[in-house]
Amino acid sequence: MIDIATLPRVMRVLVIEDDRDVAQYLVKGLKEAGHVVDHAGDGKAGLTMAIGEGYDVMVVDRMLPGLDGLTIVKALRASDNHTPVLILSALGEVDERVRGLSAGGDDYLVKPFAFVELLARLEALMRRQQPAAAQTSLRVADLELDLLSRTVKRAGQTLDLQPREFQLLEFLMRHAGQVVTRTMLLEKVWDYHFDPQTNVIDVHISRLRQKIDKSFGRPLLHTIRGAGYSLRAAP
Known about the structure:
- It is built from 8 helices and 11 strands.
- The protein has helices spanning 20-32, 43-52, 69-78, 94-102, 115-129, 163-174, 182-188, 200-212; strands at 12-16, 36-40, 57-61, 85-89, 107-110, 137-140, 143-146, 151-154, 157-159, 221-224, 228-231.
- It has a 5-stranded parallel beta sheet, sandwiched between helices.
């Protein structure tokens, strides 16, 4: 049984499906899950409804009379309609899935399918559409980095960081508790896609450690021998 209380919010769904049994199955299941559902039985009607109405998400069958599913998706994207589309198809080969996604589909589900999986995929598409709250600060133990003012404090004391040191610390804090490799730092902080065989990382790590750790009792920036670095409260 589907727990309606766990759903993110009511979705307005357009189902474009010519198989009567599959369409009834989808419409019934989505309505029971608390969503608002419209159905079109052929491609032309489906495209008209998709363009003329505001839907949160669409389920589009690949093979349809009138217009096929990929043509519908391409037409929507060409008209600057970016409503998430889940393509349903009996064609499950990798090349066919790639064609569906390349045409502008956001997800691809092969028939036969389980309704609970389809519902979970629609909810995932909806979550991607919802803008996340902008992160304005990062914190690890008593170390704080403000992304708006571009300032860093530890234990309330302001630290003077150079721009590259700030970038390095921001990346480490965004991956707090994880091991960050030299390759990751070269690519994300220095924008090198190869190892220039310099000690630039070691120099900046050393300077950063002096500023964020030296005057404080508990070290946060740790060297993981043979692996990289990790910013975390525990050694």
